[in-house]
Amino acid sequence: MRRLSVSAILLTLLVGLSLVPCALASQSPGGKYAPWPRVVATVITLAPRGMATIRAVDGATYEVVQGTTWRVGDPVECEHVASPHVPWEALDCHKTS
Predict the structure, then answer these.
(1) 63, 93 Cβ separation under 8 angstroms
(2) Disulfide check for 51: which of 2, 47, 87, 96 has CB 3.0–4.6 Å away?
(3) What is the mean pLDDT of each successive set of 10 residues along the chain, which is 97 residues long?
């Protein structure tokens, strides 16, 4: 009986510990970003209420949440977010210089 309980405990520990790397991988800080390439863009307008319009190098325009120190003409780099709640959260942008 003792051998059976020890075996059950060891099996439970083995299965439980084998699931830890999977759980940690899904919670990594970089896990929310999509595998698309970065967008290099320039700020073209700053709108009231914290929004900005940016134009990418390829000519595409996006509306994003602006950074606190952004000015018209500043270069920004953006990463695509895998599951945005609203369209202007589809890119996570930061000023490059």
Answers:
(1) no
(2) 47
(3) 74 67 53 75 92 93 90 93 77 87
Candidates 45, 7, 30, 42; CA nearest to 80 is 30
Sheet (strand 75-80) strand order: 61-65, 51-56, 39-47, 75-80, 91-95
Does 57 lie in the same domain as 85? Answer: yes
State which residues form the domain around 7: 2-29
- Are residue 25 and residue 44 in the same domain, yes or no? no
What pLDDT was estimated at residue 10? Answer: 72
End-to-end Cα, the chain, rounded Å: 69
- Are β-strands 91-95 and 75-80 bridged in parallel, bridged antiparallel, or unpaired? antiparallel
Tokens of 15: 């299965």
